Amino acid sequence: xxxxxxxxxxxxxxxxxxxxxxxxxxxxxxxxxxxxxxxxxxxxxxxxxxxxxxxxxxxxxxxxxxx
Length: 67
Prior knowledge:
The chain has helices spanning 27-30, 34-48. The protein has 2 helices and no strands. It is mostly helical.
């Protein structure tokens, strides 16, 4: 067996409760919650890829998703 490093780019919508954020919030203001969103994403990726030895987020971009 060989270990392979995989780089991927993906996009998804998730409902995350963030204080003082709703559909009218500017993307600039949403950026204040970078740590909370980063932690949420790291936790989700770790559970989805439980057999991975290392998961590193290099870049995260986010905004309020329009319906």
